[in-house]
Amino acid sequence: MSDPAATLDSRVEDLLRKLTLEEKAALLAGADGWTTVAIPRVGLPSIRMADGPNGYRSTQSEPSTAFPVGVAMGATWNPARVREAAAAMAREARASGVNILLGPNINIQRTPLGGRNFETYSEDPVLSGELALAFVEGVQGEGVGVSVKHFAANNQEHERLRGSSNVSERALREIYFPAFEKAVKQGDAWTVMAAYNRVNGIHASEHPWLLNQVLKREWGFGGVVISDWGATHSSAAVAAGLDMEMPGPAMHFGQRLVEAVGDGAVPSGAVDEAARRMLRLILRALHAGGQAEINTERHARIARSVAEEAVVLLKNDGILPLGAGRLGTIAVIGPNADEPIIQGSGSAHVIPFREVTPLDGLRALLGDRAALVHAPGTDNEPQVPLIDRRMLSPDRERTQQGLMATYYGNADFEGPAVREAVEPYLHKFGFHDAAAPIGRGAFSVRWQGWLWPERGGDYDFIVECSHRSDTWAEIRIDGVPVAGRSTEQEAFAHFEVVRMKRGKGRVRLEAGRAYRIEIDYSTRSDLMRIFKVGARKPAGTIEDAVAAASGADIALVFVGVSRSTDGEGFDRPDMELWGDQNALVEAVAAANPNIVVILQNGAPVTMPWLDKARALMTAWLPGQEGGHAVARVLAGEVNPSGRLPHTMPRRLEDNPTFVHYPGGRDAEYGEGVFVGYRYYDKAKIEPLFPFGFGLSYTTFGYAVPRGPEAVRQGDTFTVSVDVTNLGDRPGQEVVQLYIEQAAPTEARPLRELKGFRKVALAPGETRTVDFTVTPRDLSFYDVHLPGWRAEPGRFAAHFGGSSRDLPARHDFDLIEHAPEASSAA
Predict the structure, then answer these.
(1) Residue-wise pLDDT tens digits, 447-491
(2) Are residues 270 and 387 in the same domain?
(3) What residues contact 696, with CB distance under 8 A and at least 6 apart?
(4) Could you tell me if 50 and 93 are in contact, meaning their C-beta atoms sit under 8 angstroms apart?
(5) Is 74 within 8 Å of 120 (Cβ atoms)?
(6) What confidence score (pLDDT) does residue 497 get?
């Protein structure tokens, strides 16, 4: 390779001169699903990528720390906390030889039904942008690159591979672009991922206005534009600004790109520019410094601290915190009470190195201070979920969780084992390179051990693998095939992209008895090495839950989404809690008035029982340490400081997208800039809980704010407010700044978030919080200029704890900036 002492740019140019057209074209597509193409002739190695919005997702299905999901990070309103978590994810990536982490997902939460809302931060571009910048700084500060995704207007899963997001330029500039702009211009993001969808009829991955004009020219993006996996549609995309086709091997780039250059369909200069960017990325990644660390207690503590700050207390009549001393009997009820509902499904799914349920957390924290009585009450899984690792052991003594996996270097389970290990998590997005290297094709795995049913009754089993005829899987219990190639199978599409088959079956099991279990997986292919084993336990009954609640001093009810209700590749059908969860809450409330409801959700849900709950909190999908975090907030060891990153409407019909979503092949963004709270304020619709809302175990007061009485166009200025902790507990307040224009000539939101600060205050402490207001903060995007424009007139700066609770206000005038007088000739 070129002289390591030379500057990065000179080394890139030196390498670029040495490459042939064929080598440049090869460099612009992946070698496989996760690595770039190496060019040994010039000493250029490959680099590796992996998914990573809420934790490093191993491409070999190895465990890593599962952090809270994006919406939970959004609920912290704390860039410092997000930066800390992102740095930990980068260290875990480095420990696994990964150079690029595919995240953060910073698309705006436009509709409550978006399937990937749980992955994203907020409905607001300012909150999303600040957290995006923190994530980029955290990851890249450890020498790992990010891929900010999905550019652009990728806000629903419905028709995600071919649908068009039809949206005005003003809405793009004001709502859907700003977080990307901040990550690029201030964070120097190494890569940006182009979305699957079309934008105004043109695929985002070959959209010259998006990629060349806005991203590269206007924002000065110097990194690599990567396609979402399978989102490249033509060789001409390189001229439109797409630099890299993923996954590999090449379909539209590579040799087809060479031919397109030869035919004159693609200019050679476009290939040179994309190759230049790729070389710069690879050299940057190879020579970046940073620490390597994975699955440590330090990272677990960081994950827990994020989960704690994410918890939003939505209602409390004084029943919380639970208090010190003896607590009597606590009924721990609900389908999520003792299930690890810690993340959504899809490419953001991390294999956690441990999982803590709320019941685990309560047991660990409360010890003998309370008698805990557990009753699930109902099931909330539309699909058969991943098999619970706690049901499995490799030996009769149950010394470990999971099964003993034996890998063979052929598809027939023959010869000596090439790898043996206990594996607790039977969900694979790829297998161990040492046992199943890409390029060799055939291999097989047999998992063996014992199955321990928690409850007696009918158990549903599934096993999923590639649809290919040369790949199969099977589950056997006590030697009898239960699910797989010998039973009923159905076809389905994973992420709407990968063709799969699912074997399923049902068997009656007895509680307390040990069953011998064997699971086989065999393939002769390098493709689609995705594998999953699922098991549905018999659900509890609402009657059991009522009985538990009736004899308790307090009932904690854990409801919400499941492993299969929030995920990539599908949107939610409605805002309802699945199954009988609402009926469960109603029945428990009737049996015990001291009811606290804890939601685990990735997006808003309806709550018809809200007036019957004495307290309500949302814990989101809180990562592997979520059970500890929830317990500590309930017990008062942590004062809740999370705030809603989106509006919670009373009903789906109140949402601004209701008349537009889903829109068939065309998603019409008819609400324009009136997304989230901007619409509820303008339409005077009272939400269930407003954007930015969250309670504390203390209260905060705001003094009269300070700022200039008049500001000239183009000037930057400061506004300030004093905030005091009025209670007797330490707490954190999220001080929010909203700007309002009194009489705009264009349709504008009533108020818009323009800044926020999370401040920790001791009892009685007062702190001054300063905000810098820029000309952009007062502007809207005028498509007729085109550009940003701030109209002279009366403005107000509002300060408070949510978009609907703004007790402090400072008015000021924006004065037209008079042009400088020119001297006479």
Answers:
(1) 999 999 989 999 999 999 999 999 999 999 999 999 999 888 999
(2) no
(3) 313, 639, 640, 641, 727, 729, 731, 732, 733
(4) yes
(5) yes
(6) 77
Within a domain: residue 548? no
Shared domain for 273 and 393, answered yes or no, is no
Q: In this structure, what CATH number is given to the domain that contains residue 788?
A: 2.60.40.10
Structure tokens at 517: 């279990």
Q: Which residue, 268, 286, 304, sits at the end of a domain?
A: 286
**Strand pairing report for 312-316 and 224-227:** unpaired
The token duo for 718 is 């400061």
Strand 717-725 vs strand 443-451: parallel, antiparallel, or unpaired?
unpaired
CA angle 327/329/335 to nearest 5° reads 115
Taking a C-beta distance cutoff of 8 angstroms, is the pair 575, 604 a contact? yes
Which of 538, 554, 584 marks a domain boundary?
538
Distances (CA, A) of 632 to 88, 557, 598, 698, 712: 22, 16, 13, 16, 49
Q: What are phi and psi of 204, to 5 degrees?
A: -60, -30
Given 3-state DSSP classes, what are the helix, strand and coil percentages for the chain, each rounded to the nearest 5? 25, 30, 45
DSSP assignment letter at 39? B
Residue 706's identity, in one-letter code, is R
Do 37 and 167 belong together in one domain?
Answer: yes
Distance between CA atoms of residues 138 and 658, nearest Å: 37
Q: Is 80 helix (H, G, I), strand (E, B) or coil?
A: helix
> What pLDDT is stored for residue 819 in this prediction?
58
Cα torsion 571, 650, 702, 629: sign: negative
Query: Is residue 168 in a domain?
Result: yes
Taken as a whole, the chain contains a residue count of 825
User: In whole angstroms, what separates CA 647 from the centre of its chain?
Assistant: 18
**Is there a catalytic annotation at residue 368?**
no
Q: Closest Cα partner for 719 from 699, 742, 738?
A: 738
* Alpha-carbon gap, residue 353 to 468, rounded angstroms: 31
The helix/strand/coil state of 579 is coil
* Residue 822 scores a pLDDT above 50: no
Evaluate whether residue 636 is within a structural domain.
Answer: no
Asked if residues 354 and 401 have their Cβ atoms less than 8 Å apart, the reply is no
DSSP single-letter state for residue 46: -
CA distance 351 to 56: 9
Q: What letter would DSSP give residue 538?
A: P
DSSP states of 90-133 as a string? HHHHHHTT--EEE--B-----STT-TTGGGS--SSHHHHHHHHH
Closest by Cα among 577, 572, 667 to 618:
577
DSSP, collapsed to helix, strand or coil, labels residue 72 as: helix
- Total domains in the fold of the chain: 3
Residue 394 and residue 275 in one domain: no
Residue 387 maps to which CATH number? 2.60.120.260
pLDDT, tens digit (0-9, with 9 covering 90-100), for 751-802: 999 999 999 999 999 999 999 999 999 999 999 999 999 999 999 999 999 9
Query: 19: domain CATH number?
Result: 3.20.20.300
pLDDT tens per residue across span 495-518: 777 899 999 999 999 999 999 999
Residue of 116, 114, 109, 99 lying closest to 53 (CA atoms): 116
The answer to whether position 567 is within a domain reads: no
Single out the catalytic residue among 3, 51, 188, 228.
228
Range of the domain at 452: 380-538
CA 352-231-426 angle, 5° bins = 25
Is the omega angle on the peptide bond into residue 321 within 30 degrees of 0, that is, cis?
yes
| CA triple 707-711-714, angle to 5 deg | 125
Q: What is the DSSP letter of 731?
A: E
List strand residue ranges (DSSP E) for 601-644, in order.
Answer: 615-618
| C-alpha dist (Å) from residue 736 to 695, 753, 807 | 14, 7, 11
Residue 309 contacts residue 640 (beta carbons within 8 Å): no
Distances from the Cα of 71 to the Cαs of 57, 573, 622, in angstroms? 18, 19, 9
Contact call for residues 761 and 767 (beta carbons, < 8 A): yes
Q: How far is CA 810 from the centre of its chain?
A: 36
